[in-house]
Amino acid sequence: MSYLKLDENKLEPVVDELNLLLANYNVYYQKLRSFHWNILGENFFVLHDKFEELYTDARIKIDEIAERILTLRYHPVSDFSSYLKMGKIKEESALLTDKQMIGSILDDHGLLLEQMRVIVSKANSAGDEGTIDIIGGYIRELEKTSWMLNAWKKDTREQLKTNKMERVS
Q1: Which GO terms describe its molecular function (predicted)?
Q2: Element (H, E) at 18
Q3: Up-side HSE of residue 136: CA atoms within 13 Å toward CB?
Q4: Separation of alpha carbons 119 and 129, rounded Å
């Protein structure tokens, strides 16, 4: 670790958590491919394209996460059977409605965000600014995507919370 100037003992938990994120992202990626292939109904055109956008983004993140693990001088987990054992995201039937698919993706986003926040905490303890920078950007993007998918899923009669602002004289 001499060129990174990071304490290897503090870095191991970061790498462990990155490998868990890698596992989750790989299963999430495959689920998105499955939904992309199997979406039916009136929302086909919108969701077929959206799922492709999401799995393309996931594919890029998978590569970046694995490369970050390599940068930290560890080997990334790279077999699907390990991903299925390690990860919290599980395989799912593609025989779902459009709203069920979006609900499943939003559940997965919650798990990914939870994992990312653990990584940021451990990376902060290790002084690993590079990992914090990468994962912080992922959090911001995934929160926005989740908001948009959640808005798509809602009934148009539902409203956001309101907060009346008082005028200060």
Answers
A1: DNA binding; ferric iron binding; oxidoreductase activity, acting on metal ions
A2: helix 8-38
A3: 10
A4: 11
Confidence of residue 100 (pLDDT cuts 50, 70, 90): very high
Q: How far apart are CA 22 and CA 68, in angstroms?
A: 11
Domains located in the chain, CATH noted: 8-152 (1.20.1260.10)
Amino acid, res. 30: Q
Burial of 100 (0-12, 13-18, 19+ CB in 10 A): middle
* Distance (Å) of CA 146 to CA 98, 113, 115, 119, 164: 15, 10, 15, 20, 26
Task: Assign 5 to helix, strand or coil.
Answer: coil
- Do residues 19 and 76 make contact, with C-beta atoms less than 8 angstroms apart? yes
Q: What is the CA radius of gyration of the chain?
A: 19
Q: Which two tokens mark 37?
A: 């292939």
Count of beta carbons in the 10 Å neighbourhood of residue 53: 12
Higher pLDDT, 10 or 162: 10
Q: pLDDT tens digits, residue range 36-90? A: 999 999 999 999 999 999 999 999 999 999 999 999 999 999 999 999 999 999 9
